[in-house]
Input
Amino acid sequence: MWGGDSGSRHGNEGEVVADTGHLNRPRGLAARVGGWSARHRWAAVGGWVLFVVLALAVGSMAGRVDTTESEAVPGETGRVAKILDEAGIESPAGETVLIQAKERGGPTADDPEFRKAVDAVLDAVRGTGEVTAVESPYASKAISADRRSALVQFEMRGDPDKATDHIESVLDAVAKVQDGHQRVRVEEFGAASGDKAFDDAFGDDFQQAEYSALPVALGILLIAFGALVAALLPVVLAMTAFLATTGLVAVVSHLVHMSDTANSVMLLVGLAVGVDYCLFYLRREREERAAGRDPQTALRIASATSGHAILVSGFTVIVAMAGMLFTGIADFKSMGLATLMVVAVAVIGSVTVLPALLSLLGERVEKGRLPFLARRKRGRGRHGGGGESRFWKAVLGRVLRRPKLSAAVAGGLLVLIALPALGMKTANFELDQEFDSSVPVVAAYEHMNEAFPGGPDPAKVIVKADDINAAPVRAAIADFRARAVSEGASKGPVKVTVHDRENVAEIEVPLAGGLDKDKAEQSLNILRDEVRPATLGKVDGVDAPIGGSTASSKDFNDKIGSAVVPVFAFVVVFAFLLMLMSFRSLTIAVTAIVLNLLSVGAAYGILTAVFQHGWGAGLVGAEGVGAVVAWLPLFLFVILFGLSMDYHVFVVSRIREARMAGRTTKDAVVHGVVTTAGVVTSAAVIMVAVFAIFGTLSMQSMKQMGVGLAAAVLIDATVIRGVLLPAVMALLGERNWYLPTWLRWLPDLSHDESALTAGAVSAPAQAPGVYGPAGHEGHQPQHARL
Output
């Protein structure tokens, strides 16, 4: 990287002087692309607009293919869905209405008042015309042992996938019965009503997040740039990248099925990286203009410096997102593919259309300046260039005076915050964990579970046989049904439905434990490990996977657990290699990995403390639910590792640039951190604000995602980049740039900006060794690398 180069010449007394003839030559992919875009600006802008329009049009014509239930859930739960799909059996959307005395001493199932309430429910739900197979609790014997509770059970007519479209009238009918019978509780819960509550909350939450995110980001950018046009550019780039990717994802979904979650995460990540990349580029261009360079030179420097940092950062984020493809879980695969695609599109837009827009706009990028920010911006030069941050300069002064103490305090604090994560417990959230009891169906779910443990959410055993009516099979099913109760897995009643033509039987087993998730899982284990092998497992040719919500949570956790090591290894190893090749330093690569792991660990600790243990949960409008949602730790690791690299690559690139221009490592660290502080702070504030919006949503899983992401980004942009990184680099000194001889065969993805930014810079021939001790090859900086 820094060895002999035909693009440099040696001056007197061992000086290395840049060949100024190379200043106008494209240097590196980002610089070449940026230069072409600036020279052919209308072609670049028109090409981008055409790309976005065509991607949307093609995607709209192709349509998006979503994941099926059998694809979405792993393990035995997935096999349950697959057997039913292959047999063409659509389980109807079952609903249940609870009639229960509100107080001790209130009417029981034997009292006329109670019977009138039951009859009113039966008449009301039948009167909607939307239900079938209505069962009275007196006929089905669905009455609790204390006679205070009874269940009216029925099924929704038609396609179960569309039952949520028709459930509203049934819910309204049941609510009217409640109005007329105040001494008893009349509440409904079931597949359709539960899905409707979830869909409404999910849709409302993401609509609120989407509507809030853009204005928040734009407002912060207005403060950061002080001009409307400059603030709009990052938002326009991010949203056009998202729109284009939406179309591309629809096409790709015919190969890898997608999900609504993937689309929402794609928006979140697309907005974050799109704004970040545009900020990096635009701030550097403004900074160079503020330093007195003409617009063309400023743009060329921004292309060669920030443009290259965007390429390195973007590729690192893409690698991190690709880690989700190794989970083997459909939702993760769709999220990983969608997010890496939106990052790739944002990178392409940043290094192509952005230089063209800046070249077209010229001074007009300052249009729409906000008068109340004029005084603050004047201190940064006419163009509001990214001058040095006085706040971070003051912080760095203290950090670098005592780097050992600073590193010990910051590192110790992060380790302390991460400690609760050692006891992290994960689970797929049930309805009562996602929402509080103020949601009607949640209250119904809880009351039903109290009166009929496991009843609202039974385990589902699907028995597939060559002949479902064969005597050994029927005997095994009967034996399974009896032993499920006798061995303590269920308190009954166990319901069996046989599909003769399909040779499939469905067995619904209410799990003992009810709302106690640990006890419910123990009951599931009894069914799977003891009852099934002793009954159905003894019959040749019988397949009997056990699913249901409790099983789905366990299977998902098991699958995630098995995916952790390969995903972590893939992301860490490839990120390490990318950093090694991009900075040609073993030390920088190791430091980047360790600091990012500390950031992720701290986020895990905060999630565990707040949401599992409930420490300070009220401060974020949440409540301790005893667990972290199962998909979040792996998701957070991948997302945070990728986004943290944005900041790391940007800051370290600036430090390396200053070091190559002849500064000492300590001076380069100060220069790199204080000159990037404005960009990093602005980008971090936007991401924290957008992520924090998710922390205000009603669903606990969304709250956890928002709080985890916001906390991690805040820690990363302050404690990591402002204290720990400079302290560690100051302690390492010239060892920061160490690359062993045996690693120099690796591809060189680095670049040298110093000739472009400094013109011609002299450096002592016997500068401190960059790769190692003095005298080794690559010892002298040379500044005209192509």
Notes: The radius of gyration is 31 Å. The domain at 458-547 is CATH 3.30.70 (Alpha-Beta Plaits). Confidence is low (pLDDT under 50) at residues 1-26, 374-386, 757-786.
